[in-house]
Specification:
The chain has 21 helices and 16 strands. It is α+β, with helices and mostly antiparallel strands. Among the domains are: 235 residues, no CATH class; 137 residues, no CATH class. Strands 4, 5, 8, 11, 12 and 13 form a six-stranded antiparallel sheet that branches. A four-stranded antiparallel sheet has the order 1-14-2-3, with helices on both faces. The longest helix has 41 residues.
Length: 536
Protein backbone atom coordinates (compact mmCIF):
# COMPACT_ATOMS: atom_id res chain seq x y z
CA UNK A 1 0.00 0.00 0.00
CA UNK A 2 1.43 3.32 -1.14
CA UNK A 3 1.90 6.04 1.46
CA UNK A 4 -0.41 9.05 1.37
CA UNK A 5 1.06 12.09 -0.34
CA UNK A 6 2.46 14.67 2.00
CA UNK A 7 1.11 18.20 1.96
CA UNK A 8 3.80 20.84 2.05
CA UNK A 9 3.61 23.57 4.65
CA UNK A 10 4.79 26.12 2.05
CA UNK A 11 1.51 26.19 0.17
CA UNK A 12 0.65 29.80 -0.73
CA UNK A 13 -2.81 30.80 0.32
CA UNK A 14 -5.24 31.93 -2.40
CA UNK A 15 -5.84 35.65 -2.45
CA UNK A 16 -9.31 36.58 -1.36
CA UNK A 17 -10.13 38.20 -4.69
CA UNK A 18 -9.27 35.05 -6.69
CA UNK A 19 -12.42 33.20 -7.68
CA UNK A 20 -13.22 29.62 -8.57
CA UNK A 21 -12.62 30.22 -12.23
CA UNK A 22 -8.97 30.97 -11.54
CA UNK A 23 -8.64 27.66 -9.65
CA UNK A 24 -10.19 25.82 -12.56
CA UNK A 25 -7.84 27.43 -15.05
CA UNK A 26 -4.81 26.64 -12.84
CA UNK A 27 -5.83 23.01 -12.52
CA UNK A 28 -6.33 22.77 -16.26
CA UNK A 29 -2.88 24.22 -16.90
CA UNK A 30 -1.28 21.78 -14.40
CA UNK A 31 -3.03 18.90 -16.11
CA UNK A 32 -1.67 19.95 -19.46
CA UNK A 33 1.80 20.32 -17.96
CA UNK A 34 1.86 16.81 -16.44
CA UNK A 35 0.44 15.14 -19.52
CA UNK A 36 2.67 16.28 -22.32
CA UNK A 37 2.03 14.56 -25.65
CA UNK A 38 4.91 12.55 -27.16
CA UNK A 39 3.83 12.85 -30.77
CA UNK A 40 6.38 15.41 -31.82
CA UNK A 41 5.76 14.79 -35.48
CA UNK A 42 2.12 15.83 -35.26
CA UNK A 43 3.10 19.01 -33.43
CA UNK A 44 5.62 20.02 -36.07
CA UNK A 45 3.34 19.20 -38.98
CA UNK A 46 -0.23 20.15 -38.10
CA UNK A 47 -2.92 18.88 -40.37
CA UNK A 48 -4.73 21.06 -42.88
CA UNK A 49 -7.97 20.57 -40.94
CA UNK A 50 -6.51 22.26 -37.88
CA UNK A 51 -5.17 25.16 -40.01
CA UNK A 52 -8.61 25.71 -41.48
CA UNK A 53 -10.22 25.52 -38.07
CA UNK A 54 -8.04 28.29 -36.58
CA UNK A 55 -8.19 30.68 -39.55
CA UNK A 56 -9.90 33.89 -38.30
CA UNK A 57 -13.08 34.94 -40.02
CA UNK A 58 -13.77 38.37 -41.46
CA UNK A 59 -15.84 39.37 -38.44
CA UNK A 60 -13.03 38.32 -36.12
CA UNK A 61 -10.56 40.41 -38.12
CA UNK A 62 -12.84 43.46 -37.94
CA UNK A 63 -13.62 43.01 -34.25
CA UNK A 64 -10.73 45.22 -32.98
CA UNK A 65 -11.88 48.12 -35.19
CA UNK A 66 -13.54 50.91 -33.12
CA UNK A 67 -16.89 50.82 -34.88
CA UNK A 68 -18.71 53.01 -32.38
CA UNK A 69 -16.05 55.71 -32.45
CA UNK A 70 -16.00 55.74 -36.25
CA UNK A 71 -19.80 55.88 -36.38
CA UNK A 72 -19.97 58.83 -34.01
CA UNK A 73 -17.22 60.71 -35.82
CA UNK A 74 -19.08 60.32 -39.12
CA UNK A 75 -21.89 62.42 -37.61
CA UNK A 76 -19.92 65.57 -38.40
CA UNK A 77 -19.54 65.10 -42.19
CA UNK A 78 -23.08 63.68 -42.39
CA UNK A 79 -24.53 66.73 -40.64
CA UNK A 80 -22.41 69.01 -42.84
CA UNK A 81 -23.64 67.41 -46.08
CA UNK A 82 -27.07 69.17 -46.20
CA UNK A 83 -25.37 72.50 -45.49
CA UNK A 84 -22.94 72.14 -48.39
CA UNK A 85 -25.63 70.77 -50.72
CA UNK A 86 -28.04 73.63 -50.03
CA UNK A 87 -25.29 76.22 -50.47
CA UNK A 88 -24.16 74.77 -53.78
CA UNK A 89 -27.66 74.23 -55.17
CA UNK A 90 -29.11 77.64 -54.25
CA UNK A 91 -28.32 79.35 -57.56
CA UNK A 92 -29.26 76.33 -59.67
CA UNK A 93 -32.56 75.95 -57.81
CA UNK A 94 -33.32 79.64 -58.24
CA UNK A 95 -32.71 79.50 -61.99
CA UNK A 96 -34.45 76.22 -62.73
CA UNK A 97 -37.27 76.17 -60.18
CA UNK A 98 -38.44 79.74 -59.45
CA UNK A 99 -37.37 81.82 -62.43
CA UNK A 100 -39.53 79.87 -64.88
CA UNK A 101 -42.75 80.53 -62.95
CA UNK A 102 -45.25 83.24 -63.83
CA UNK A 103 -46.11 83.66 -60.14
CA UNK A 104 -43.38 83.39 -57.55
CA UNK A 105 -44.00 81.47 -54.28
CA UNK A 106 -44.49 84.70 -52.31
CA UNK A 107 -47.50 85.55 -54.50
CA UNK A 108 -45.81 88.24 -56.61
CA UNK A 109 -46.10 88.42 -60.38
CA UNK A 110 -42.74 87.81 -62.02
CA UNK A 111 -42.96 91.15 -63.88
CA UNK A 112 -43.58 93.08 -60.65
CA UNK A 113 -40.73 95.49 -59.81
CA UNK A 114 -40.47 94.01 -56.29
CA UNK A 115 -40.48 90.35 -57.38
CA UNK A 116 -37.28 88.32 -57.20
CA UNK A 117 -36.41 84.79 -58.22
CA UNK A 118 -33.41 84.55 -55.85
CA UNK A 119 -34.32 81.63 -53.58
CA UNK A 120 -32.23 82.99 -50.67
CA UNK A 121 -33.93 86.41 -50.70
CA UNK A 122 -35.22 87.60 -47.31
CA UNK A 123 -38.78 87.83 -48.65
CA UNK A 124 -38.82 84.01 -48.76
CA UNK A 125 -37.80 83.55 -45.11
CA UNK A 126 -41.05 81.89 -44.00
CA UNK A 127 -42.40 81.19 -47.49
CA UNK A 128 -42.24 77.56 -48.69
CA UNK A 129 -40.49 78.49 -51.92
CA UNK A 130 -39.38 74.89 -52.48
CA UNK A 131 -42.96 73.64 -52.90
CA UNK A 132 -44.48 71.05 -55.20
CA UNK A 133 -47.75 69.41 -56.18
CA UNK A 134 -51.26 70.54 -57.05
CA UNK A 135 -53.37 69.20 -54.18
CA UNK A 136 -56.55 69.99 -52.32
CA UNK A 137 -56.55 71.70 -48.93
CA UNK A 138 -57.27 68.40 -47.15
CA UNK A 139 -54.31 66.68 -48.77
CA UNK A 140 -51.77 69.36 -47.92
CA UNK A 141 -53.14 69.58 -44.37
CA UNK A 142 -52.70 65.83 -43.86
CA UNK A 143 -49.12 66.03 -45.16
CA UNK A 144 -48.38 68.98 -42.88
CA UNK A 145 -49.77 67.25 -39.77
CA UNK A 146 -47.89 64.02 -40.58
CA UNK A 147 -44.66 66.00 -40.93
CA UNK A 148 -45.16 67.72 -37.57
CA UNK A 149 -45.86 64.43 -35.79
CA UNK A 150 -43.31 62.13 -37.41
CA UNK A 151 -40.42 64.49 -38.07
CA UNK A 152 -41.10 67.22 -35.50
CA UNK A 153 -42.00 65.13 -32.46
CA UNK A 154 -40.20 61.97 -33.57
CA UNK A 155 -37.00 63.89 -34.26
CA UNK A 156 -37.29 65.57 -30.86
CA UNK A 157 -37.46 62.17 -29.17
CA UNK A 158 -34.30 61.00 -30.93
CA UNK A 159 -32.40 64.20 -30.15
CA UNK A 160 -33.59 64.15 -26.53
CA UNK A 161 -32.34 60.57 -26.10
CA UNK A 162 -28.92 61.49 -27.50
CA UNK A 163 -28.82 64.52 -25.20
CA UNK A 164 -29.67 62.39 -22.18
CA UNK A 165 -27.03 59.80 -22.99
CA UNK A 166 -24.19 62.23 -23.69
CA UNK A 167 -25.08 64.65 -20.88
CA UNK A 168 -25.25 61.89 -18.26
CA UNK A 169 -21.85 60.53 -19.22
CA UNK A 170 -20.34 64.02 -19.18
CA UNK A 171 -21.87 64.95 -15.80
CA UNK A 172 -20.42 61.81 -14.23
CA UNK A 173 -17.06 62.81 -15.73
CA UNK A 174 -17.47 66.24 -14.08
CA UNK A 175 -18.24 64.49 -10.81
CA UNK A 176 -14.91 62.64 -11.15
CA UNK A 177 -12.95 65.85 -11.71
CA UNK A 178 -14.40 68.32 -9.25
CA UNK A 179 -17.86 67.18 -8.20
CA UNK A 180 -21.30 68.46 -9.17
CA UNK A 181 -24.14 69.99 -7.22
CA UNK A 182 -27.28 68.19 -6.18
CA UNK A 183 -29.56 70.20 -8.43
CA UNK A 184 -27.28 69.86 -11.43
CA UNK A 185 -27.06 66.09 -11.16
CA UNK A 186 -30.82 65.70 -10.66
CA UNK A 187 -31.68 67.98 -13.59
CA UNK A 188 -29.39 66.22 -16.05
CA UNK A 189 -30.20 62.70 -14.89
CA UNK A 190 -33.98 62.91 -14.50
CA UNK A 191 -35.24 65.87 -16.55
CA UNK A 192 -32.59 66.35 -19.22
CA UNK A 193 -34.72 68.20 -21.79
CA UNK A 194 -36.95 70.60 -19.88
CA UNK A 195 -37.34 74.27 -19.06
CA UNK A 196 -36.12 73.62 -15.50
CA UNK A 197 -32.89 72.19 -16.89
CA UNK A 198 -32.40 75.33 -18.99
CA UNK A 199 -32.49 77.42 -15.81
CA UNK A 200 -30.12 75.07 -14.01
CA UNK A 201 -27.61 75.08 -16.88
CA UNK A 202 -27.82 78.84 -17.17
CA UNK A 203 -27.03 79.31 -13.49
CA UNK A 204 -24.29 76.66 -13.53
CA UNK A 205 -22.59 78.46 -16.42
CA UNK A 206 -22.14 81.48 -14.12
CA UNK A 207 -20.32 79.42 -11.50
CA UNK A 208 -16.70 80.62 -11.26
CA UNK A 209 -15.31 78.02 -8.89
CA UNK A 210 -12.35 75.77 -9.67
CA UNK A 211 -9.07 76.15 -11.50
CA UNK A 212 -8.91 78.32 -14.58
CA UNK A 213 -8.43 75.57 -17.17
CA UNK A 214 -10.99 73.21 -15.61
CA UNK A 215 -13.36 76.11 -15.17
CA UNK A 216 -13.05 76.97 -18.89
CA UNK A 217 -13.66 73.38 -19.99
CA UNK A 218 -16.62 73.10 -17.64
CA UNK A 219 -18.08 76.41 -18.83
CA UNK A 220 -17.70 75.36 -22.47
CA UNK A 221 -19.51 72.09 -21.79
CA UNK A 222 -22.32 73.83 -19.89
CA UNK A 223 -22.86 76.34 -22.72
CA UNK A 224 -22.96 73.46 -25.18
CA UNK A 225 -25.54 71.68 -23.03
CA UNK A 226 -27.58 74.87 -22.77
CA UNK A 227 -27.62 75.39 -26.55
CA UNK A 228 -28.35 71.72 -27.22
CA UNK A 229 -31.24 71.64 -24.77
CA UNK A 230 -32.69 74.83 -26.22
CA UNK A 231 -32.42 73.39 -29.74
CA UNK A 232 -34.10 70.11 -28.78
CA UNK A 233 -36.93 71.94 -27.01
CA UNK A 234 -37.55 74.17 -30.04
CA UNK A 235 -37.08 71.39 -32.62
CA UNK A 236 -40.82 70.73 -33.26
CA UNK A 237 -41.45 74.46 -33.69
CA UNK A 238 -38.54 74.77 -36.11
CA UNK A 239 -39.78 71.80 -38.11
CA UNK A 240 -43.27 73.30 -38.27
CA UNK A 241 -41.92 76.68 -39.40
CA UNK A 242 -39.66 74.96 -41.92
CA UNK A 243 -42.60 73.66 -43.96
CA UNK A 244 -45.94 74.97 -45.08
CA UNK A 245 -48.47 75.09 -47.87
CA UNK A 246 -49.41 77.87 -50.27
CA UNK A 247 -52.21 78.36 -52.78
CA UNK A 248 -51.07 77.89 -56.34
CA UNK A 249 -51.40 81.31 -57.98
CA UNK A 250 -52.07 82.32 -61.57
CA UNK A 251 -51.34 85.71 -63.19
CA UNK A 252 -54.21 87.98 -64.26
CA UNK A 253 -54.51 91.40 -65.88
CA UNK A 254 -57.45 93.77 -65.53
CA UNK A 255 -58.63 95.20 -68.88
CA UNK A 256 -60.15 98.60 -69.53
CA UNK A 257 -63.61 97.33 -68.61
CA UNK A 258 -62.49 95.93 -65.23
CA UNK A 259 -62.51 92.25 -66.23
CA UNK A 260 -59.76 89.91 -65.04
CA UNK A 261 -58.04 88.31 -68.01
CA UNK A 262 -55.66 85.39 -67.59
CA UNK A 263 -52.17 86.52 -68.54
CA UNK A 264 -51.88 83.53 -70.83
CA UNK A 265 -54.40 85.24 -73.14
CA UNK A 266 -52.30 88.40 -73.32
CA UNK A 267 -50.05 88.57 -76.36
CA UNK A 268 -47.11 90.80 -77.10
CA UNK A 269 -47.64 93.11 -80.07
CA UNK A 270 -45.33 92.55 -83.05
CA UNK A 271 -46.86 94.85 -85.65
CA UNK A 272 -49.75 97.31 -85.79
CA UNK A 273 -51.39 97.98 -89.20
CA UNK A 274 -53.09 101.35 -88.82
CA UNK A 275 -54.93 101.42 -92.18
CA UNK A 276 -56.17 97.82 -91.99
CA UNK A 277 -59.50 98.78 -93.66
CA UNK A 278 -57.59 98.68 -96.97
CA UNK A 279 -57.12 94.91 -96.54
CA UNK A 280 -60.59 94.03 -95.26
CA UNK A 281 -60.53 94.68 -91.49
CA UNK A 282 -62.90 96.97 -89.60
CA UNK A 283 -60.41 98.71 -87.37
CA UNK A 284 -56.72 98.81 -86.51
CA UNK A 285 -55.13 95.38 -87.03
CA UNK A 286 -52.94 94.21 -84.15
CA UNK A 287 -50.49 91.42 -85.02
CA UNK A 288 -49.56 89.45 -81.91
CA UNK A 289 -46.37 87.49 -81.58
CA UNK A 290 -48.27 84.21 -81.28
CA UNK A 291 -50.46 84.99 -84.34
CA UNK A 292 -48.32 83.12 -86.81
CA UNK A 293 -50.58 83.61 -89.84
CA UNK A 294 -50.63 87.41 -89.61
CA UNK A 295 -46.92 87.59 -88.80
CA UNK A 296 -46.18 85.65 -92.01
CA UNK A 297 -48.59 87.87 -94.00
CA UNK A 298 -46.80 91.02 -92.87
CA UNK A 299 -43.42 89.54 -93.65
CA UNK A 300 -44.43 88.33 -97.12
CA UNK A 301 -46.01 91.54 -98.38
CA UNK A 302 -43.88 93.05 -101.20
CA UNK A 303 -42.95 96.61 -102.22
CA UNK A 304 -41.63 98.25 -105.36
CA UNK A 305 -38.92 100.85 -105.07
CA UNK A 306 -40.33 104.30 -105.89
CA UNK A 307 -37.01 105.17 -107.57
CA UNK A 308 -36.49 102.22 -109.91
CA UNK A 309 -39.99 100.67 -110.14
CA UNK A 310 -38.52 97.20 -110.58
CA UNK A 311 -36.63 96.44 -107.33
CA UNK A 312 -38.86 94.31 -105.00
CA UNK A 313 -38.43 93.89 -101.25
CA UNK A 314 -40.55 92.09 -98.70
CA UNK A 315 -41.66 93.73 -95.46
CA UNK A 316 -39.18 91.66 -93.49
CA UNK A 317 -36.40 93.07 -95.67
CA UNK A 318 -37.58 96.58 -94.95
CA UNK A 319 -37.84 95.91 -91.25
CA UNK A 320 -34.34 94.47 -90.96
CA UNK A 321 -32.70 96.88 -93.41
CA UNK A 322 -29.80 99.00 -92.18
CA UNK A 323 -30.14 102.77 -92.81
CA UNK A 324 -26.37 103.12 -93.11
CA UNK A 325 -26.46 101.27 -96.46
CA UNK A 326 -26.21 103.94 -99.20
CA UNK A 327 -27.85 101.74 -101.85
CA UNK A 328 -30.87 101.15 -99.64
CA UNK A 329 -31.00 104.89 -98.81
CA UNK A 330 -31.22 105.57 -102.56
CA UNK A 331 -33.98 103.03 -103.09
CA UNK A 332 -35.98 104.09 -100.01
CA UNK A 333 -35.11 107.67 -99.04
CA UNK A 334 -37.55 107.75 -96.07
CA UNK A 335 -35.77 105.01 -94.08
CA UNK A 336 -34.20 107.47 -91.60
CA UNK A 337 -37.62 108.60 -90.43
CA UNK A 338 -38.82 104.98 -90.37
CA UNK A 339 -36.08 103.89 -87.94
CA UNK A 340 -36.67 106.83 -85.63
CA UNK A 341 -40.45 106.39 -85.33
CA UNK A 342 -40.67 102.60 -85.91
CA UNK A 343 -43.52 103.41 -88.28
CA UNK A 344 -43.00 102.04 -91.78
CA UNK A 345 -44.72 103.40 -94.92
CA UNK A 346 -43.33 104.19 -98.38
CA UNK A 347 -44.89 105.90 -101.36
CA UNK A 348 -45.06 102.89 -103.65
CA UNK A 349 -47.39 100.12 -104.66
CA UNK A 350 -47.48 96.92 -102.64
CA UNK A 351 -49.10 93.53 -102.45
CA UNK A 352 -50.88 91.94 -99.41
CA UNK A 353 -51.18 88.14 -99.34
CA UNK A 354 -53.32 86.54 -96.61
CA UNK A 355 -55.27 83.25 -96.50
CA UNK A 356 -54.43 82.61 -100.15
CA UNK A 357 -55.89 85.93 -101.32
CA UNK A 358 -53.63 88.58 -102.87
CA UNK A 359 -54.62 92.25 -102.70
CA UNK A 360 -52.81 94.80 -104.89
CA UNK A 361 -52.51 98.06 -102.99
CA UNK A 362 -51.83 101.42 -104.69
CA UNK A 363 -49.38 103.89 -103.20
CA UNK A 364 -48.75 104.53 -100.38
CA UNK A 365 -47.97 101.20 -98.77
CA UNK A 366 -49.58 99.96 -95.55
CA UNK A 367 -48.86 102.05 -92.49
CA UNK A 368 -47.18 99.56 -90.14
CA UNK A 369 -45.68 100.23 -86.70
CA UNK A 370 -43.00 97.84 -85.46
CA UNK A 371 -42.76 96.90 -81.75
CA UNK A 372 -39.74 95.18 -80.10
CA UNK A 373 -41.46 92.17 -78.55
CA UNK A 374 -38.45 89.86 -78.97
CA UNK A 375 -36.36 91.96 -76.58
CA UNK A 376 -38.98 91.43 -73.86
CA UNK A 377 -38.83 87.67 -74.25
CA UNK A 378 -35.08 87.70 -73.73
CA UNK A 379 -35.06 90.06 -70.77
CA UNK A 380 -38.16 88.59 -69.06
CA UNK A 381 -39.14 92.02 -67.80
CA UNK A 382 -41.64 94.76 -68.51
CA UNK A 383 -40.22 98.25 -68.24
CA UNK A 384 -42.16 101.47 -68.12
CA UNK A 385 -41.61 103.93 -70.95
CA UNK A 386 -40.56 101.36 -73.55
CA UNK A 387 -42.13 100.74 -76.97
CA UNK A 388 -43.37 97.30 -75.95
CA UNK A 389 -47.14 96.94 -76.32
CA UNK A 390 -49.62 94.22 -75.40
CA UNK A 391 -52.96 93.16 -76.81
CA UNK A 392 -55.97 91.43 -75.27
CA UNK A 393 -58.73 89.73 -77.28
CA UNK A 394 -56.72 89.09 -80.42
CA UNK A 395 -56.37 90.94 -83.72
CA UNK A 396 -59.03 93.58 -83.13
CA UNK A 397 -58.29 94.03 -79.41
CA UNK A 398 -57.16 97.05 -77.44
CA UNK A 399 -53.54 98.01 -76.97
CA UNK A 400 -51.98 98.21 -73.48
CA UNK A 401 -48.72 99.91 -72.63
CA UNK A 402 -46.17 98.54 -70.10
CA UNK A 403 -47.18 100.98 -67.36
CA UNK A 404 -50.80 99.83 -67.45
CA UNK A 405 -49.76 96.17 -67.35
CA UNK A 406 -47.53 96.70 -64.31
CA UNK A 407 -50.22 98.64 -62.45
CA UNK A 408 -53.10 96.24 -63.21
CA UNK A 409 -51.32 92.89 -63.36
CA UNK A 410 -51.18 90.58 -60.31
CA UNK A 411 -51.31 86.96 -59.17
CA UNK A 412 -54.53 85.52 -57.78
CA UNK A 413 -54.68 82.33 -55.65
CA UNK A 414 -56.29 79.33 -57.29
CA UNK A 415 -58.15 76.34 -55.91
CA UNK A 416 -55.15 74.00 -55.61
CA UNK A 417 -52.33 74.04 -53.06
CA UNK A 418 -48.63 73.20 -52.93
CA UNK A 419 -46.67 71.88 -49.94
CA UNK A 420 -42.96 72.34 -49.45
CA UNK A 421 -40.03 73.84 -47.56
CA UNK A 422 -38.62 77.27 -46.93
CA UNK A 423 -35.15 77.17 -48.48
CA UNK A 424 -33.70 79.76 -46.08
CA UNK A 425 -35.18 78.05 -43.04
CA UNK A 426 -33.92 74.68 -44.27
CA UNK A 427 -30.44 76.16 -44.60
CA UNK A 428 -30.66 77.67 -41.10
CA UNK A 429 -31.85 74.40 -39.51
CA UNK A 430 -28.98 72.58 -41.25
CA UNK A 431 -26.57 74.96 -39.51
CA UNK A 432 -28.27 74.23 -36.17
CA UNK A 433 -27.99 70.48 -36.78
CA UNK A 434 -24.30 70.79 -37.54
CA UNK A 435 -23.64 72.82 -34.38
CA UNK A 436 -25.64 70.33 -32.29
CA UNK A 437 -23.69 67.40 -33.77
CA UNK A 438 -20.38 69.15 -33.03
CA UNK A 439 -21.42 69.67 -29.41
CA UNK A 440 -22.48 66.05 -28.97
CA UNK A 441 -19.32 64.63 -30.55
CA UNK A 442 -17.08 67.03 -28.62
CA UNK A 443 -18.63 66.19 -25.24
CA UNK A 444 -18.56 62.46 -25.99
CA UNK A 445 -14.87 62.61 -26.98
CA UNK A 446 -14.05 64.58 -23.82
CA UNK A 447 -15.80 61.96 -21.67
CA UNK A 448 -14.20 59.06 -23.53
CA UNK A 449 -10.75 60.58 -23.17
CA UNK A 450 -10.81 61.50 -19.49
CA UNK A 451 -13.49 59.58 -17.63
CA UNK A 452 -12.25 56.65 -15.57
CA UNK A 453 -15.81 55.34 -15.15
CA UNK A 454 -16.44 55.44 -18.89
CA UNK A 455 -13.27 53.46 -19.64
CA UNK A 456 -14.27 50.89 -17.02
CA UNK A 457 -17.59 50.31 -18.78
CA UNK A 458 -19.87 52.42 -16.58
CA UNK A 459 -22.77 53.75 -18.67
CA UNK A 460 -25.67 55.97 -17.60
CA UNK A 461 -28.93 54.39 -16.63
CA UNK A 462 -32.12 55.65 -15.04
CA UNK A 463 -32.27 53.07 -12.25
CA UNK A 464 -28.60 53.32 -11.35
CA UNK A 465 -28.81 57.12 -11.24
CA UNK A 466 -31.85 56.85 -8.96
CA UNK A 467 -30.11 54.41 -6.61
CA UNK A 468 -26.89 56.43 -6.36
CA UNK A 469 -28.70 59.75 -5.97
CA UNK A 470 -31.03 58.36 -3.28
CA UNK A 471 -28.11 56.83 -1.37
CA UNK A 472 -26.22 60.13 -1.49
CA UNK A 473 -29.26 62.07 -0.23
CA UNK A 474 -29.77 59.59 2.61
CA UNK A 475 -26.13 59.92 3.59
CA UNK A 476 -26.40 63.71 3.56
CA UNK A 477 -29.75 64.09 5.31
CA UNK A 478 -29.64 61.04 7.55
CA UNK A 479 -32.31 58.56 8.54
CA UNK A 480 -35.96 59.33 8.06
CA UNK A 481 -35.68 60.68 4.52
CA UNK A 482 -38.65 58.58 3.44
CA UNK A 483 -40.85 60.42 5.92
CA UNK A 484 -39.80 63.94 4.89
CA UNK A 485 -41.84 66.20 2.64
CA UNK A 486 -40.51 67.61 -0.63
CA UNK A 487 -39.86 71.08 0.74
CA UNK A 488 -38.03 69.74 3.77
CA UNK A 489 -35.71 67.68 1.58
CA UNK A 490 -35.03 70.71 -0.58
CA UNK A 491 -34.23 72.79 2.49
CA UNK A 492 -31.78 70.19 3.80
CA UNK A 493 -29.97 70.00 0.45
CA UNK A 494 -29.83 73.78 0.14
CA UNK A 495 -28.08 73.93 3.51
CA UNK A 496 -25.79 71.05 2.59
CA UNK A 497 -22.03 71.47 2.51
CA UNK A 498 -21.56 68.41 0.39
CA UNK A 499 -21.88 67.59 -3.27
CA UNK A 500 -21.75 64.55 -5.56
CA UNK A 501 -18.45 63.10 -6.67
CA UNK A 502 -16.57 59.92 -7.50
CA UNK A 503 -13.78 58.86 -5.09
CA UNK A 504 -10.59 57.68 -6.70
CA UNK A 505 -11.05 54.06 -5.64
CA UNK A 506 -14.74 53.73 -6.41
CA UNK A 507 -16.84 53.37 -9.54
CA UNK A 508 -20.01 55.08 -8.37
CA UNK A 509 -21.34 58.52 -7.56
CA UNK A 510 -21.42 59.26 -3.82
CA UNK A 511 -21.66 62.18 -1.45
CA UNK A 512 -18.37 64.04 -0.97
CA UNK A 513 -17.37 67.09 1.08
CA UNK A 514 -17.13 70.49 -0.57
CA UNK A 515 -13.68 72.01 -0.72
CA UNK A 516 -14.32 75.72 -1.31
CA UNK A 517 -11.00 76.95 0.07
CA UNK A 518 -12.65 79.20 2.65
CA UNK A 519 -12.18 77.05 5.73
CA UNK A 520 -15.88 76.36 5.99
CA UNK A 521 -16.75 80.06 6.11
CA UNK A 522 -19.52 80.88 3.65
CA UNK A 523 -19.48 84.05 1.65
CA UNK A 524 -22.74 85.88 1.46
CA UNK A 525 -24.15 88.43 -0.95
CA UNK A 526 -25.83 88.61 -4.33
CA UNK A 527 -22.62 87.90 -6.21
CA UNK A 528 -22.03 84.70 -4.26
CA UNK A 529 -25.62 83.56 -4.79
CA UNK A 530 -25.27 84.22 -8.49
CA UNK A 531 -21.96 82.43 -8.99
CA UNK A 532 -22.28 79.50 -6.58
CA UNK A 533 -24.19 77.37 -9.07
CA UNK A 534 -27.68 75.91 -9.00
CA UNK A 535 -29.39 74.61 -5.91
CA UNK A 536 -32.74 73.38 -4.73
Amino acid sequence: MLPAPRISNNVVARPPHQDLEDDTNSSYEMLNTTKQPHHHTSERHPTSTQDHRHTPTLLQKLAPFPHRTALILTLLPLSLTPLITLSAAAEVTSQSYIRGRDCYPNGLWKYSPTATWEIMDSSYFFTPNLSFGAMSFTQVKVIDIAWDLLVGRGGQLVLAWVNWRVFNEWVVWCAEREGVGWRMYAAVSFETTSLNTLGVLGKESLCLEGRRWKRWVRWLGLVGMLLSTLYVLSFPTLMAALTGYIAKSEPYVQDYEGNLIAFGKVDGVRYVVHDAERIGFDRVLVVGERDGELVDAVRKCTYLSPQTRFFKLTCIDMITIAPENNTQRFLFPTLDETYQSRQFSVNTTSQWLFNGTAIELPAPSLNITIHPVAADKQGESILRGTDIMFVINGRQGDLYDPGYMLDHGSCKPGETYQWGFSYIFLFMVSIFNFIWACIMVGMWLDTRRGSRLYRSGRRPGLLRSIVEFAAAIKEEVGDGTEDMEEEELRERLRASEGRLGVPSRELRVVRVDTDDGNGGVRKRGWKRSLTRGSTF
